[in-house]
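The freezer alarm interrupted the setup, so I double-checked each line after restarting. Inputs confirmed:
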Amino acid sequence: VLDGDGSLEVGRVAAIDEAEAGDLTFLANPKYASKLSGTRATAVIVHDDVSDAPCAMLRSPNPYLTFAESVAVLTPDPPPEPGISAQAAIDETAHIGADASVGAFVVVGAGTRVGARAVLAPHVVIGRGVTIGDDCVFHAHVSVRDGVAIGSRVVLQNGVVIGSDGFGFARRTDGSHQKIPQVGTVAVEDDVEVGAGSTVDRPAVGETRIGAGTKIDNLVQVGHGTRIGKRVLIAALSGIGGSTLIDDDVTLAGQVGVVGHLRIGRGVVAMAKSGITKDVAPGSRIAGFPARDVDEWLQGQALVRRLSDLGRLVADLTARLGALESRLK
Amino acid sequence: VLDGDGSLEVGRVAAIDEAEAGDLTFLANPKYASKLSGTRATAVIVHDDVSDAPCAMLRSPNPYLTFAESVAVLTPDPPPEPGISAQAAIDETAHIGADASVGAFVVVGAGTRVGARAVLAPHVVIGRGVTIGDDCVFHAHVSVRDGVAIGSRVVLQNGVVIGSDGFGFARRTDGSHQKIPQVGTVAVEDDVEVGAGSTVDRPAVGETRIGAGTKIDNLVQVGHGTRIGKRVLIAALSGIGGSTLIDDDVTLAGQVGVVGHLRIGRGVVAMAKSGITKDVAPGSRIAGFPARDVDEWLQGQALVRRLSDLGRLVADLTARLGALESRLK
Amino acid sequence: VLDGDGSLEVGRVAAIDEAEAGDLTFLANPKYASKLSGTRATAVIVHDDVSDAPCAMLRSPNPYLTFAESVAVLTPDPPPEPGISAQAAIDETAHIGADASVGAFVVVGAGTRVGARAVLAPHVVIGRGVTIGDDCVFHAHVSVRDGVAIGSRVVLQNGVVIGSDGFGFARRTDGSHQKIPQVGTVAVEDDVEVGAGSTVDRPAVGETRIGAGTKIDNLVQVGHGTRIGKRVLIAALSGIGGSTLIDDDVTLAGQVGVVGHLRIGRGVVAMAKSGITKDVAPGSRIAGFPARDVDEWLQGQALVRRLSDLGRLVADLTARLGALESRLK
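Predicted 3D structure, all chains:
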């Protein structure tokens, strides 16, 4: 709902404290509500329940989502021009879809199929026998190894690795390590985004899978044979051990670690730096290491902070009880 | 020892719950023993003490190792065809060994020597004066900087960096930081494997060293001047500070941190997320931050979980002692 | 101040326990003082208050800084020869400064300006509309995305990514995630160094900024819209959430995590593995998760280690009080 002059024109999006006349801004995080009165923006996207602003208001039940849609309209990111660079090395048995844009020094291996309107930035390396859906965007220095299957509308940020060998070794009698050949594969479903420098390993047998609509941040490690459900969010520097099952709609905050061979139930939320060592029931909110219920963990932390008080109390009780015992002896 | 029809043929390896007729599977982790009765595999590799399976059994004292060997036989990974891509940039003073496979856009610097049967995937960049042994496999986007020495049968997964500058700065009087030129080198011994995106820094003086047979997982940081022994295992997202000595046969689980200038004794095992701040005696099993004996740490964690009980007990004692004191006043 | 034979010649720098005749070494970390008497170096840089060594002494109030300067003199790193590789792909509208060295397979996009004496190692990819100052060194496989602004004397180690999309998604009513287009930019000021594999994201609006003289180690994640001040040090595997403000002269040790939307005051020092969840006052020294004053945290850790003693004491008090109560009943 627009509240204000409907004929106003905005040409740019900006942060609430950096916006100038002609800019559209937004207020999604209530933490910043105090900044609203001072904004110089021409219009602001606010939550339905905001009543007053120094500029036109565009009310929305989900200001962040409305903002996302507005940015896409105001600052469209023009796709690179279609065409295959003369400096790319595309195997003659590979198929590149219509209207794809393939940059300089891209390598595409034998038998690989890339869908329509793909953007392969310079220095993307795709192995042999890979399948890639339509409308994917792979940024510079992405590696996709042999045999991986990738859906449509998948975005891989710079330096992402899909299909590297899992960390699988068997110990020999002499203590040395025998590599387990990692001949399984990786499947990345539709609408997945993977952040810069993240790595997704392939397993010895079977597959590693990233479910549709899952978004992974930078420098995240996904172990071999792990299956991640749909619409999962994983923040930066988290690591998921091998053969773990992460159900739909799970959220892992930054620097979370998940041991291998676990099952994390649907909708679980793990706070930053959680270390998950056991299966987690659906809907749980967890924190700490070993991770447990977040309220229990917060209470435990508060009690640890009061440990010196407890120690003093016990010392006082000891003295008083001793005095009483002496008197009554 | 084969227990079953010796004329059975298997053509593929598969996970125990995904195997079909014609597949070979394995049971190494006792956690999955219950899956054995339901497998549809034609044959299963099991531990010597397993007595019954719904298919042929191949018994082994080390099923995981036998599985590793079976995979290598059943699904041999054909090496890329030997030859040097016309699109590679090999310095004329570099030497590439017999039967090597050098992909598109590979760069090899002046005076570098690469051993026989090396596989340098597309987009590998090797600096000047590097030596590389026989039978190495470097995946796409690996960087090896000037002067590094690498042994034989070394595997570097995608995006690995060997020989980047260590994080060495001296503070000037004005609070700014003067870079210490990192003119030392890195030595990687035989049979090492390094996971995708991991980085091994070079020091100001001397060398950083990774011992023979050591295996490093993805996104691991090895600091400048650190020496890692033989057959060490380091899991994902761990970081080792500079000038630290990690002895043979150490295991570091995921997201472990080791402060610089320490000595970690032979055979130490550090649990996930350990933060190691002091020297560790050989054979220790440690956990937590600051890391200490794993049993002590587990006991401490259990006591923290019971802190609210302890608090209630102390409150109860306080009340009872107060009542007694009043009565006796 | 030189103490010893002023005509001595040294030709190499070496670690104190590896130095041979003809080498210059240094003693900066008092932990290694015991190694001084055994060194075979020809000369050693020591702190002003060191009185005795088995070789010539070069005394300095800051031995590490003097060492840094000595290394630069003794082992000058010859810059690569100027020139642009015939195998680079430089857009015709890009400008490369005088005496720059541009390696094989480098990509520079339309409208980008690179300053004088830049070293762009092989496989560096620079987007469109980027500005880069003078005397920068970018190692192999660096990615700099469209529109980023980089100052002078900036060093980017291998595989660094500047300007990847921030992790910004708005939740739709059906639980799926709408990407917020990340159309802001990144500014990296003069004299910054970023370690191998680290990533700096661009925001939806405004900019991410790294202040002058800041040094970032390997595998560090800097979130979108975060502003880092001047002379900040950030060690390996740390992650900074989005929209956080890190003031000048802050030090974050390894594997530190900082939640988004915080302000970390000037000169704060955070110990390894700290998890910072609230604003931090200038000058604070913090540790733990949630991070708090380092002395409080150390005391808390010590108390946890004595929890079993406290438990035994409370059990003893309970028994004694019960006995007293029975007697007096």
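Quick read of the result. Helices of chain B lie at 63-74, 294-305, 307-328.
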